[in-house]
Automatic annotation (TrEMBL):
Name assigned to this protein: Thioredoxin reductase
Assembly notes: Homodimer.
EC numbers, comma separated: 1.8.1.9
Annotated FAD/NAD(P)-binding domain residues: 9-298
Cofactor(s) needed: FAD
Keyword vocabulary terms for this entry: FAD, Flavoprotein, Oxidoreductase, Redox-active center
Stored Gene3D superfamilies: FAD/NAD(P)-binding domain
Annotated source species: Pedobacter fastidiosus
Length: 318
């Protein structure tokens, strides 16, 4: 049954490090936040294994376990966490209108968007089979686990070039698989790749399958699309760097975003172009994309929301 017009001070959309941190700060500020987790409660980190670069976990922690810690902390301060997805929004008037699961309407004085971004994958069954066991979409997150080993990375843009040079500092050999006969990356990044002796660039190369022993990655089967010759490259790690898609489809036409769909926020803040709507985490960060930076911007969004509400309640006289 539709429950129309529940009104909240602070609605948080999304539940990764950014959303949960925003919830912790908003709840402690007595904004009584309500969070809708989205279909993947906990966000991208629930699909990773070891997280060793988040401060406060000296022994490292599994991604899903860390998100469970975040969730418990948000709940401890009174966040109302609900499983559900936002099907549409209307930010044209205040309070803002949000429809949940296509049936329930909520009005909110402030909205914090923490819907994150989704890594683009090649779509191979073996990619998902070995995800977290040799397959990764984040070199900065997982490169350390392949110190001194051979790895492959697929992609031709700036991200692939940057991640390849990052991996080259840690790994013995980096095989960069480029589908066409040229990069899409900037000349500066291409020059950096070509000047790195332990990066081997494989042009005209398509990934057919990621091979493994049932537990870990052992090789990648590739096809040279010029010669039509298949071959196996022995590697222990396989990185996908073909981009991320920000989860912003429902905000199109409502919020300013760049050409790839990342939400635009005012420099040094989490403010969007709509008053009372804030964005944090990977949904507005195509550059860093780390759990710790997402958490930091989640904190910022809650503080921004709190200050916005305080200013509305007690406007400064001119």
């Amino acid at each position: 049954m539709s429950q129309e017009n529940e009104h909240v001070q602070c609605l948080i959309i999304g539940s990764g490090p950014a959303g949960y941190t925003a919830a912790i700060y908003a709840a402690r500020a007595d904004l009584k936040p309500i969070m809708y987790t989205g279909m993947q409660a906990g966000g991208q980190l629930t699909q990773t294994t070891d997280v060793e670069n988040f401060p406060g976990y000296p022994q490292g922690i599994m991604g899903p376990e860390m998100m469970e810690d975040f969730r418990k902390q948000a709940e401890r301060f009174g966040t109302d966490i609900r499983f559900g997805y936002i099907s549409s929004v209307d930010f044209s008037s205040t309070p803002h209108k949000i429809v949940v699961d296509e049936i329930k309407t909520i009005t909110a004085d402030t909205v914090i968007i923490a819907t994150g971004a989704t890594a683009k994958w090649l779509g191979l069954p073996s990619e998902q089979q070995y995800n977290g066991f040799g397959v990764s979409a984040c070199a900065v997150c997982d490169g350390f686990f392949f110190k001194g080993q051979d790895v492959a990375i697929v992609g031709a843009g700036d991200t692939a070039a940057e991640e390849a040079t990052y991996l080259a500092k840690l790994c013995k050999t980096v095989h960069l698989l480029v589908r066409r006969d040229e990069f899409r990356a900037s000349k500066t990044m291409v020059s950096r790749v070509l000047a790195t002796p332990n990066i081997i660039v494989h042009y005209n190369t398509e990934t057919l399958e990621i091979l493994g022993n049932g537990k870990n990655v052992t090789a990648v089967k590739v096809l040279n699309n010029k010669t039509n010759v298949e071959s196996d490259i022995e590697v222990e790690g396989f990185f996908v760097a073909i981009g991320h898609k920000p989860n912003t489809d429902i905000f199109k036409g409502q919020l300013d975003m760049d050409e790839t769909g990342y939400l635009l926020t005012k420099p040094g803040s989490t403010l969007t172009n709509v008053e009372g709507v804030f964005a944090c985490g990977d949904v507005q960060d195509m550059y860093y994309r780390q759990a710790v930076t997402a958490a930091g911007s989640g904190c910022m969004s809650a503080l921004d929301a709190e200050r916005y509400l305080a200013a509305k309640e007690h406007p400064i006289e001119a």
